[in-house]
């Protein structure tokens, strides 16, 4: 039976970085995947304007087609300033989308990322998806995003994956989705380079005896 999946990410490109392979695997299996982007991802940058937002959204549309994502939603909250908002203001639109989509599986950020938007989104998702009677969500999985998760430092909860998704057959799709976000990628040896992200997938795969994998922390699983 096909599944309904929701990815809730702080910024456009986080979905491809954190779970692009898993998304491709879901859509190849006939599952429906929708993605919510909470912050605009651009306007905290010096000199950024509407043109930068449009370019980011076009890159997102290209990645959406590559990954087979059903739909994307942009909430448009201020980039790198989610901590300036009342958490309820972020929780409520997420609750509304969860109520309309009734996802069985949710992918979102790790709570120990350096990026403040990632941490706020994680908390908002966990709040919006409280395990109340009738809640459709059966799984919540936290992904890693390079140049944030690994930069958290000693004061942040480390990313300790306990679930691995074999993406060996979907690596090329993930890489093409990352290439769609070329403006957000960096040159090696930056951790958000195409080269390193390929090596990371190979490393995560080697940890569990497959060619390539994405790693997640299980926040909740109901069986």
Count of beta strands: 7
CATH superfamily: LmbE-like
Main sheet: strands, sense, barrel: 7 strands, mixed
CATH architecture: 3-Layer(aba) Sandwich
Total helical segments: 6
- Could you please say which CATH topology applies here? Rossmann fold
Q: Portion of residues in helices?
A: 25-40%
Question: Can you characterise this structure?
Answer:
This protein is α/β, with parallel strands linked by helices and 223 residues long. The protein has a single domain (4-221), classed as LmbE-like (Rossmann fold, 3-Layer(aba) Sandwich), CATH 3.40.50.10320. The chain is built from 6 helices and 7 strands; from the N terminus they run βαβαβαβαββααβ. The chain has helices at 14-28, 50-67, 87-101, 116-128, 171-180, 194-207; strands at residues 4-9, 32-39, 71-77, 105-109, 139-143, 163-166, 213-221. A 7-stranded mixed sheet has the order 3-2-1-4-5-7-6, sandwiched between helices. Strand 2 (32-39), helix 2 and strand 3 form a beta-alpha-beta unit. Helix 2 (50-67) packs antiparallel against helix 5 (171-180), helix 3 packs across helix 4 and helix 5 (171-180) runs antiparallel to helix 6. The longest helix has 18 residues, at 50-67. It is globular.
Concise structural overview:
By secondary structure, the chain is of the alpha/beta class. It contains 6 helices and 7 strands; from the N terminus they run βαβαβαβαββααβ.
């Amino acid at each position: 039976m096909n599944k309904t999946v929701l990815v809730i990410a702080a910024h456009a490109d986080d979905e491809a970085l954190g779970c692009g392979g898993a998304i491709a695997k879901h859509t190849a299996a006939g599952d429906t995947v929708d993605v919510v982007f909470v912050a605009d991802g651009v306007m905290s940058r010096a000199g950024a304007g509407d043109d930068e937002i449009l370019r980011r959204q076009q890159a997102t549309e290209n990645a959406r087609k590559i990954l087979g994502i059903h739909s994307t939603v942009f909430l448009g909250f201020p980039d790198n300033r989610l901590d300036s908002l009342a958490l309820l203001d972020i929780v409520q639109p997420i609750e509304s989308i969860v109520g309309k989509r009734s996802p069985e599986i949710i992918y979102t950020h790790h709570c120990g990322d350096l990026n403040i938007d990632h941490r706020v989104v994680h908390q908002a998702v966990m709040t919006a998806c409280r395990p109340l009677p009738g809640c459709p969500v059966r799984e919540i999985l936290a992904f890693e995003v390079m140049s944030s998760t690994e930069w958290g430092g000693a004061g942040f909860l480390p990313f300790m994956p306990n679930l691995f998704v074999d993406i060996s057959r979907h690596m090329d799709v993930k890489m093409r989705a990352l290439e769609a976000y070329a403006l957000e990628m960096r040159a090696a040896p930056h951790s958000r380079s195409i080269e390193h992200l390929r090596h990371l997938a190979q490393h995560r795969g080697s940890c569990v005896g497959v060619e390539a994998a994405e790693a997640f922390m299980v926040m909740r699983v109901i069986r």
